[in-house]
Amino acid sequence: MSNQTEYKNRKVLILGLAVSGYSAAKVLKELGAEVTVNDYKDIDSSDEAKELRSLGITVVSGGHPLSLLDQPIDLLVKNPGIPYSNNLLKEAEKRDIPIITDVEVAYTISPSSLVAITGTNGKTTTTKMIESLLVAEPGEGHIYSVGNIGTPSTTVALHSNPEDTLVMEVSSFQLMGTKTFRPNIAVITNLHSAHLDYHGSREEYVEAKMAITKNQKAEDYLIYNHDQLELTNLVLSASEAQLIPFSRKSLLDKGVYLDGGVIYFNNEKIMDSSSIVLPGKHNLENALAAIAVAKLHNVTNQTIEKVFSHFHGVPHRMQFVDDIRERRFYNDSKATNSLATINALEGFQQKVILLAGGMDREDDLENLIPSFRNHVKALFTFGETKNKLLEVGKKAGISEQAAFETLSEAVYKAFEISEKYDVILLSPSCASWDAYANFEARGQDYIDTIRNIKSMMKKESKHPSECIIYENISNWWRYRRPYLSGSCADQTDESDE
Fold first, then answer.
1. CA–CA gap between residue 291 and residue 183 (Å, rounded)
2. What are residue 193's phi and psi, to 5 degrees?
3. Is the pTM of this model over 0.85?
4. I want to staple 246 with a disulfide (CB 3.0 to 4.6 A). Which of 68, 112, 288, 356 is the partner?
5. Is 32 part of any known ligand binding site?
6. pLDDT per residue over 234-265, tens digit each?
7. Is residue 386 annotated as involved in ligand binding?
8. Where is the Mur ligase C-terminal domain (predicted)?
9. Can you list the alpha helix ranges (DSSP code H) found in 273-367?
10. Is 122 annotated as a binding residue?
């Protein structure tokens, strides 16, 4: 769809600045709209606010005053993270002001082909897989990864061409704010309960996810996880698109499936699954979905296999960080729910040292018990849910476990008790907002702590009887352990007491 004149002379209120709001404000202004930006935080002195004002955009910050709606408003573009329970949004709904999100704006102004990816888990990894596959065998146009990852969707959409392809990750928050959004190819990786603190009910969450296909027609495609009966029934009843299932567990007459370690598309052999270097059954499912998109774009089997043999994942999603003294560190900070952690644990053939914890959203964490019992040798927790997770670990029979105030402390302890060939995995099962701005910041803190350990290991004395003291970033907590022959277990250091 491409209707860049739709916003000319329209009065648009953008609720919430952030990256998406900042981009949407500039794009809509360029398209001739009268734009007002409102943010709850005081952003008046920020560089972004100054730039927007220089473009003739009104900026109101320090709250969400209802008086903003007293002026004529034709359209409200909300930041996806702001819930519909917000008083200004509720008042806008009463006044029948249309409320959309930035992905709807991007869709309406872009002439490009659109591949949209959603799901409870695996969205970002699948999006990057698809981007990598399409870039490896490009057509006449460009391939752009937009949305929750990459460049803001509105920025790219404004200047994209008909021969281009936008590969867009979309969340349930964004899909709730769509009206005409219609991807040429939609992908639903999986569907589980999540974000109920935002949506209020599972039914609303499912409805938001299914919005990805609500406007699709017979010439469009919907790729979905056939191994989930609920999702299969939903797409069969709700979608007019051509359905392409993928399955890790069943043989299919049509679609992408696994049979004896070989991946097939419509009964054509594509590649051996062993060529996929990214670990985990869930990542195999992500790959199956991405392969379906690739085949619709006529990517050759040889290229598909080559891409997956070099695709090592996305930062903060089962990311290999480093190997220190033959202990391997993995960063799965994006695992913000228990299912994501279960998938991560099942991706390893050995029991791991697990670091978990974060914001308490009152989720039921007891479904972790079987995976903890089968895949975790030691558990170190942090954040608001640290004690809840210890209870889960106790029920799973994990004897080596402890709770810490910070992630960094948990990392140091994990390294202290680790042995050669151990895997140390950050897979929190919880959101990051109790201590971090986002999961990326949490993952970076983990990486920085690992780098700190590695740096200190380089300073280790070569004398076999000496201990090295590692001091964590909070400057008050120390631990010590010998890493060469000999023991220092009875030594103490009270210099910081």
1. 17
2. -70, 130
3. no
4. 288
5. no
6. 999 999 999 999 999 999 999 999 999 999 99
7. no
8. 316-430
9. 281-296, 301-308, 338-346
10. yes
